[in-house]
Amino acid sequence: MDQNNKNRRSFLKSTGTAIVGGSVLPFGFNIREGFAAQKSTLKVGLIGCGGRGTGAAAQALKADKDAELTCMGDIFEDYLEESYQSLKKMNAEQVKVDDEHKFVGFDAIQRVLESDVDVVILTTPPAFRPAHFKAAVEAGKHVFCEKPVAVDAPGVRSVLESARLAKEKGLSVVSGFTFRYDFPKRALFERIRNGEIGDITNVFTARNGGGLWYKERQESWTEMEYQLRNWYYYNWLSGDYIVEMMVHSLDLMSWAFNDRLPIRVMGTGGRQARTEEKWGNIYDHFSVEYEYENNLKGVHFSRQMKGCSNTNKVDITGTEGFATVDVGKRVHATMGAERWDYDGPSNNPYETQHEELFASIRAGEGKNEGELMANSTMLAIIGRMVGYSGQTMTWEEAMKSEVKLGPAAADYRWDLVVDVPQVPIPGITKDV
Q1: Any idea what the CATH number is for the domain that residue 107 is in?
Q2: Dist CA 334 CA 192 (whole Å)
Q3: Which of 136, 228, 277, 408 has the largest count of CB atoms under 10 Å?
Q4: Above 70 in pLDDT, residue 184?
């Protein structure tokens, strides 16, 4: 037992001193004050003008008074115009997008990158992310990259390569793993990192919720447009719900394990409540076990079913105590020799992530979360892979997978018919 405890402690402390990754600003630091002497304008381009894109752009502008939104791009004109009008109402002074810089179509990304923007916000459906991230880095732009960053292993490998190029170029890359920017969670995970509950033995994550949005099919839509407007329900666009949404929970699990990678993964999943054709080909429940070195275990449980109880929490067990994060109830506590509950300052992590992005750009630091965002995304992808197939997989096997869920980025067009596989059946489905 003593040797096992030593192994666990060594395992969890072997990757460095900073648990949250990258530079972490102290709670009392006001970035706007740090910008007071810096009057140069940072021009921002938005790529993907849905709800998340609109929110990210608004948060970016609020985070830096010297930032301006000068360019917008989306495949749908109505999304772009709705986003523009909303942003204009919220912050007219910093929204400076004229009609010539509103780009619509599959090539909108290139037209935004060809403008003189300094920073791009990538908030399209996840399937587009690897190609968009690569193009942005090659164009020399700083990037805010919404999670998840890919839907399959080839996409993850592409993101890792682009992240390496971004580092070589000194570009800043911040991901949309928002929990990493929440002050209460930073404080709790720092206490865990300092041994407050001893050596971590297992982590349990659960996120149960109900139904989500759906857009009724219109006669004028091609099949491609219908799927793009309902992208969440097609695994080639979203990666399945475990990749698109539950990746936040898995990122917290990874954080607890100091961002080390699992050895092997097994799990199950299926579709019991969301069974109609309109829900595409994704699952509505998953249960996955992640095995790490020294017999450490991480477990993820989730479902999306109406009429069931809801929760969103992470429980972390150590050799000398216990820690919990209840996202819905805003509980952040450790129970070691004594109980500790977070009672420090609060923040809006959606804004903080942009504040720290802009701060790194202005300081010339090249903050780069590329590897972190790729690995956390892959945790969700391998969870989907074992759930779909019913097979146990090693991390190496999953990372080497050549299975690509959708068409190549260059092949997108409105009349393209994507061959959407049927709902996967564990034990039968092979291409995962």
Answers
A1: 3.40.50.720
A2: 8
A3: 136
A4: yes
Residue-level pLDDT at 410: 86
Q: What is the pLDDT of residue 34?
A: 36
Top-confidence residue, 9 or 392: 392
pLDDT at 182 over 90: yes
Report CA 40 to chain centroid distance, whole Å: 30
Question: For residue 14, is pLDDT > 80?
Answer: no
- Which residue's entry shows tokens 């394990």? 257
Provide the pLDDT for residue 431: 79
Q: Which residue has the higher pLDDT, 3 or 136?
A: 136
Is residue 173 domain-shared with residue 242, that is, in the same domain? no
What's the domain range around 107? 42-179
Question: What single letter denotes the amino acid at residue 48?
Answer: G
Residues 147 and 215 in one domain: no
Quote the pTM value.
Answer: 0.91
**Inside any domain, residue 321:** yes
Name the residue type at position 83.
Answer: S
Mean pLDDT of the chain: 91
Say which residue the tokens 């990749």 belong to. Answer: 243
